[in-house]
Structures are given as C-alpha cells and as structure tokens.
Amino acid sequence: MAVADKFQKIIDFLTSGFENREDSIYGEMMEDAEEYPVQDNLALNPNYTTTEQKAPSAKVVSHPNFRGYEVMVCEPRSYEDSISIVKHLKDRKTVVLNLHLLDKEQALRIVDFLCGATHALSGSQQKIGDSVFIFTPVNVALSAESQKSKFLRDALWNQPQA
Questions:
Q1: φ and ψ at 135, to 5 degrees?
Q2: pLDDT higher than threshold 60 for residue 23
Q3: Alpha-carbon distance 115 to 126, whole Å?
Q4: With b meaning 16 or more CB within 10 Å and e meaning fewer, what string describes 35-49?
Q5: Are 53 and 67 in contact (CB under 8 A)?
Q6: Tell me: the pLDDT tens digits for 94-108?
Q7: Is the pTM value of this prediction over 0.85?
Q8: Would you kindly state where each structural domain of the chain is located, as residue ranges?
Q9: CA 59, CA 50: separation in Å to the nearest integer?
Q10: 104 to each of 75, 78, 83, 125, 131, how far by Cα in Å?
Q11: 107-144 confidence digits (pLDDT tens)
Q12: Sign of torsion, CA 8 11 16 19?
C-alpha cells in the first residue's frame, strides 16, 4: 500500500495545476465572458469583427548619390600622389595602382603607405602583377586564386577520359 500512496501523491502533485479555478482571477474573467451557443465545442454565432490589414507598399527608390562601385586606375608620378589615392579608398573606390613610372624606392614607399592606409580602413590589398597592385575598401571582397590551386584545378579538369 505504501507504493500506491506514493503514486497517488505523485499523481495529485502533477494534476494539481488543473483544478477548478472558480475562486481565482480566472474565475472572475470567466464570469465577465459572454456565452455563445455552441455545438460540439464550436461557437455557432461568435461575436467578433475582422479588419483587413493592408500590407505596406514598399517603394524602392534609388539613392541619388550612388554611382555603383568605381574602380580607379592610378599611375602616380611622385610620392605626393599617394594622398589622393587614399582619398579614393576613403570614398570606397577600388584602386588599381600601376607603378611603372616610378623608381623602385618611391614605388616601395607608396605601396607601404597605401598598405597601411588600406589596413586602417579595413580594406584589402593584393599584388596582381609586376609593379601593379589592387587596393579595395571594406565593402569590396577581394579573393585570389593561388598558383598551386590553379595547377590542381587544371590537372583535375584536363585528365584524359577513359
């Protein structure tokens, strides 16, 4: 009998939340509720109103100052031209830098300066050729395929067919 009493206590504990609540706030709310005629637990004539909700009309308006993504090709003639190149990066323009007009020392100074500015602006930089670099702002993703991955891709696709 002790086991049966323990089971009864557990069942009473689990079902205690489903007691009749007429003496609680819930009972007061039920007293104020209107009674509807029902059939098989369905309201026959519910008293409610509906209103149609119109979806807000979304208008797409182009931004008047947006000119798309610009790519600037720059061929600086001196170190002082690097200031204007940084302004292009700050304006979120991609810069392709061709350094063929400069000697090696000035070209190295400009590349170092622009790499620092690009890093400060959270952009990316990549060497794309002999004395040709690309600098991108934060809103442009830059990805490059390495020579090893090109070789593996070509080897995979150029296999003789059996």
A1: -125, 125
A2: no
A3: 9
A4: eeeeeeeeeeeeeee
A5: no
A6: 999 999 999 999 999
A7: no
A8: 71-142
A9: 27
A10: 14, 12, 19, 19, 9
A11: 999 999 999 999 999 999 999 888 999 999 988 888 77
A12: negative
Q: Does domain 71-142 have CATH number 3.30.110.150?
A: yes
How many C-beta neighbours within 10 Å does residue 94 have? 20
Q: Write out the two tokens for 95.
A: 């810069």
Reading the block at residue 121, the tokens are: 């602006």
Q: What is the pLDDT of residue 86?
A: 94
